[in-house]
Every structure is written in C-alpha cells, then in structure tokens.
Design brief:
Length: 177
Amino acid sequence: MALGEVNFMTQSPSQAWQQLLKTGSLVLFHIVDTQTELSPDKENVYVRADLVFQGDDEDTDPAEIAEWGAFGFLFILATLSFQDARPRGLSEGDFLTQDDFTIDDFFACLTYGQNGLHLRADYIRGRSMKTDITIRPDGTVTLTTWGRGQSALRWLDKLQGKKLMDVVQSAGESERR
C-alpha cells in the first residue's frame, strides 16, 4: 500500500478515525491567500483561506498529495472545527462539552462534485461549525468559515506546527502566589 492508502473496510470506526487523523496530519500545505471580512452586523467574521498541498521538495505535484491525503486532511480540518465550535442560540440544548466528530458526521457532511471533495458543516449536535471545505483534484483547497471569528486561521497554524500563544506570567507574578 502507498503512503496514506488505507483499507477502511477492514477497520473498526475508531481505527478509521485514527487513520484519517494520522493521514491528515502528514499533509503539508502552503497558504496561498487569506481573506477576512466583517459582516454587516459587525459581530461575525467571514474567513476564506486558499491553500495548496506541497511535498518535501519542489517537484512534488499537489495532485499526487490530494490522491492519498485529501480525505485525511478534510477530516482533520472538520475535527478541529468541531472541537472549536460552540453553541449559538437554541442549539445550546443539544451541546455536549465532551463530544467528538465521528466518521458518521464526516460522511453526512461530505459530497463529491465537479470541484472535488466538499464538506459543509452547519450545526452538528449543538455545535455551530459554519465550515465549508473544498479539496480539488489538483491539490488546491478552499477553507471557509462564517460566524467563527478567525479560528480557521488558528487551525491552519496548528496543522503547520506553529506554537499558539499562551498567557505567560512574569517572574514577579509567580512569586506573589
């Protein structure tokens, strides 16, 4: 089997879930462009990020990475969106703090069309995901969120291994405690 190639028919749902996360974490990408726009109500932010898959060297064709990595990359982005999502309005009654994005959720949101693999998640079990992801056969990706602030940009930073900012105490603060 080639890198990222998995026979999901012989795996349990938990094994498939783990394999998708593992495969998704192996996909390297470059952020080509990002756009953020404040909604007319000045409370919600629309974010669009255009990406392209990349290999360890310049000669790697992004389409080759899409062949083995598209499903995993899509799943890991959807999982990050789900984990970061919170309830809005009436959805709070369905919200569970300890919940996971499942294989069933993934396939319920997944379609394939003229532009490639597409995942659209609005509300799942009380979580306002508001996430749209398209992975095209040529290895280009569009990630769009609305009403989520700039959280999508943090997911991309996390996938690229960037350290997210933490609150740091000054030396004087820790001595006073």
